[in-house]
Design a protein that fits this description.
It is built from 10 helices and 12 strands. The protein has about 270 residues and is of the alpha/beta class. The strands form 2 sheets. The chain has a 7-stranded mixed beta sheet, with helices on both faces. Strands 8-9-7-10-11 form a 5-stranded mixed beta sheet. Helix 4 runs parallel beside helix 5. The longest helix has 14 residues. The radius of gyration is 18 Å and the shape is globular. It binds nicotinamide-adenine-dinucleotide. Nicotinamide-adenine-dinucleotide binds next to helix 1, helix 4 and helix 9.
Amino acid sequence: MQETSVGLIGFGSIGRAIIDSWSRAPIRNHRIQAVLVRSHQVEDAKDALGKGVVVTTDIFEFLCVRPCLVIEAAGHTAVTQHAADVLKAGAKFVILSAGALANDPFREDILALAARSGGQIVIPVGAIAGIDGLLALRRLGLSHVRYTSTKPPVSWRGTVAEQQFDLDSLTKPTTIFRGNAAEAAHFFPKNANLAATVAVAGLGFRDTEVELVADPSAPGNSGRIEASGAGSRLEVTVAGEQSASNPKTSSITGLSVLSYLENETNCLSLR
Ligand SMILES: NC(=O)c1ccc[n+]([C@@H]2O[C@H](COP(=O)([O-])OP(=O)(O)OC[C@H]3O[C@@H](n4cnc5c(N)ncnc54)[C@H](O)[C@@H]3O)[C@@H](O)[C@H]2O)c1
């Protein structure tokens, strides 16, 4: 069987977790051939990846290895900057920063581009479960979808929540945002990507309710989907430890990408 050539954008918490797990247990018939990093990360990334992997800060050098599949683990800006080039190259673009898709014109443009170029856009389920059930309920007729993300106060540092709340002084679970998934993606680009994934799978960005909670007693990050429609209900909660290098991110996220590559499931395919 022919090997699938993989490119990775981002050498932060998730990017490193992917490389680390891959080096211990490689994904059959897949090979990481290029990693796009920031200039200050080049040497570290070369050390972590060894010879034979292109480590670069240049998207065109990155795409020269002709990846069949590109994993984005870098942020909204990386998605908007590189989606067109990745899709024009005919690659599958696996997007973790799903909140970037809340921008309607951008989403429509890259979907049209993917259709023309033979590329594809895929969102791995990330640190949540239940997307399969949500997709099934959508066929039946969803009337209500709500996503709640609860994280310790430290996870909300560096966000707009700091303008309204003294995060270090919270003594009980506190709702720091309530709105729809489009607003959540706009105001919390580094924290609300799962809300975007739920929106894409369910009722869309405008009609998906999102609540973000800072809980000083939370042992880690948790995400909860509540959905209903046509006499059916879905309730799923996933609670996990935070990544040691980025408390906004759950450690399970990078592994969900590997599970997607291994099984070709655990993802949403956008068309
Ligand atoms: N879908 C999910 O389940 C889920 C869960 C957690 C995090 N995320 C998202 O995944 C993304 C990565 O998360 P993380 O925890 O690794 O973040 P991180 O901040 O630890 O790492 C991101 C890295 O990407 C680099 N980067 C940014 N733009 C780049 C570019 N254009 N080219 C190359 N490198 C670039 C940054 O310098 C940083 O090193 C974030 O957008 C995060 O919000 C998604």
